[in-house]
Amino acid sequence: MTAPEATARPRPETTASGVAATARGGWWGMAGSVANAVFSFLLVGLITRAVGAQGAGVIFTGVAMFTILSNTCKLGADTGLVRFVPRDLAVDGGRSVDALLRTALLPATVAGTAAAMPLVLFPSVATALLPQVPPADATALIRLFGLFLPAATVGMVLLGAARGYGTVVPFVGVEQIGKPVLRVLIAIPVVWCAPSVPALASAWLVPSLAGSVAAWFALRRCRAQRPTPRRAAGADVPWRAFWRFAAPRAVSSVFDIGAVWVGVILLSALATSREAGVYTAIGRIVTAGTLVQLAVRLAVAPELSRLLAVEKVAEARALHRVSTCWTVALSWPLFGVVACFPGTILSVFGPGFADGALALVVLCTASMVNVAVGNAQTVLLMAGRSCWHLTVTAVAFTVQLAVGVLVVPAWGVLGAAASWGAAIVVENVMAAVLVRTRLGFTTVDRGYIRALAVGLAVTTVLVASRLSEGDTSSGLAVGMVLGLCVFGITLCRYRTLLRLGDLVGALRHRAA
How many other C-beta atoms are found inside a 10 Å radius of the C-beta of residue 1? Predict the structure, then answer.
């Protein structure tokens, strides 16, 4: 590819096609992210109301361990499939898909099973994680999580393969709608009839098994809708290239998911289970604030991989710029609401949770930096730079762990939030610099400036409401009403520069 080809302006029809495809997937992702946020809030609220902050801390310490291990044991294979399956479909007609699935699934299954064995066989693991819980109860709880670990690991790899076929519907249906809804439906009768830590932990775990079964059926459906030719006997399979990409991603995924949950484990081990429960509620709120970014990432990743595979670099860069505008314009107002009224929002979870208000403000501020750089880390991965991504996440996780060990014993929840916030800023700034200087993906243009203007305008109104009404329910209501008015006006004013019309056009096309 010559330099002029790499820097040429994208043709309008090809860019619009990529944007439309991303918009369709993004709206599915948005619907799933909203459902996930709502039902995750409901579940955390049910658990905290039923067993209190301390009991919730015990449950979510197990959830943190389970989530970190399941994301570790998939060995980066899900992201590998997201990158390699669309490339193989575009370049080779999908001849290597069968080999890719075998290459990804077998090691992940073995790793999930191996990781579950210590949880089931060695009680010392449970007592180390839950030192404030009676040993027999801690052992029973951790064994329960270990039994479900292999199936959950395989399910996530299968969903990665389905995303490789260019659809986010299976992932959204299983991970963002199916599991959260089923967890709440199971938890409601448990809370009503027999609220206990083991019963509520089971309510969280059972949907992971159902999700893995649903993921298998979803992948079968994707493959039936797009059958691929069989690879000739004796032909090479891309397992070396696959694991060269996936192996660094396997390590970086540990850092990614560890950043979300390591604060819970540190608080449980170095502080109290009650503070771990408060921190879990804060984490749910912050994660909900990134729902737009996650929705866009789900749709952008396979499309970026496809464009880069066929050397449409200019179109890929344009897609990154447009998707970043969407993310900033729609996410900054959400974080503005939470940062201005943290105590009121946390009070939903019960008495005592408002003590984490300052910690929530710290994480909202860091998350606004995360949103501002767009999906820079997705660009690194889909461009095949998993080693770069590993370096970025390793540095950020080291910062988080070092800061956390130093300040959590003294500051508690605020210390855990400060360590995570520092890691978020370090990771995203490093990724943005690499994407800009080494890959040539820019984010700042007129549309980006306008998107920032939308977020700042709404935030200004919210701050004014907070100063006049305080961190109260009435202040939140007034701020949201005025904020929605400002948001609607500014979004309508700058809709052309933000390319939001492409979203509407994509929806009309899908409806037709």
Answer: 7
Q: What is the pTM of this model?
A: 0.69
**202: nearest Cα among 131, 147, 150:** 147
Residues 456-463 have a mean pLDDT of: 88
| d(C-alpha 243, C-alpha 248), whole Å | 8
Cα gap 262→270, rounded to integer Å: 12
> Which phi and psi angles does 229 have, rounded to 5°?
-70, 155
Looking at residue 342, the DSSP 8-state letter turns out to be H
| Neighbouring residues of 122: CB distance < 8 A, sequence distance ≥ 6 | none
Give the helix/strand (H/E) hosting 384.
Answer: none
Could you tell me which of 84, 46, 433, 66 has the C-alpha nearest to residue 257?
Answer: 66
Burial class from Cβ neighbours inside 10 Å (0-12, 13-18, 19+) for residue 375 reads buried
Cβ–Cβ < 8 Å for 428, 370 = yes
Both structure tokens of 284: 């749910």
Distance CA 156, CA 148 (A): 13
Render pLDDT for 195-215 as a digit per residue (tens, 0 to 9): 888 889 999 999 999 999 999
DSSP states of 212-247 as a string? HHHHHHHHHHHHHHS--PPPPTT---THHHHHHHHH
DSSP assignment letter at 95: T
Two tokens at 1?
Answer: 């590819």
125: its two tokens: 């693991």
Q: Which letter does DSSP use for residue 377 in this model?
A: H
Residue ranges of alpha helices (H) inside 341-445 are 342-346, 357-372, 376-382, 386-411, 413-438
- Between 32 and 59, name the one with better pLDDT: 59
- DSSP 3-state of 442: coil
- SS3 of 278-338: the string is HHHHHHHHHHHHCHHHHHHHHHHHHHHHHHHHCCCHHHHHHHHHHHHHHHHHHHHHHHHHH
Element (H, E) at 263: helix 239-270
> How many other CB atoms sit within 10 Å of the CB of residue 134?
10
Structure tokens at 260: 């979300």
The contacts of residue 244 (CB under 8 Å, 6+ apart) are none
Cβ–Cβ < 8 Å for 57, 280: yes
- Rounded to the nearest 10°, the torsion over CA 326, 329, 331, 333 is -160
Indicate the DSSP class of residue 195. -
Tokens representing residue 360 in the block: 């929530």
Angle at 354 between CA 349 and CA 358, to 5 degrees: 130
CB 328 within 8 A of CB 371: yes
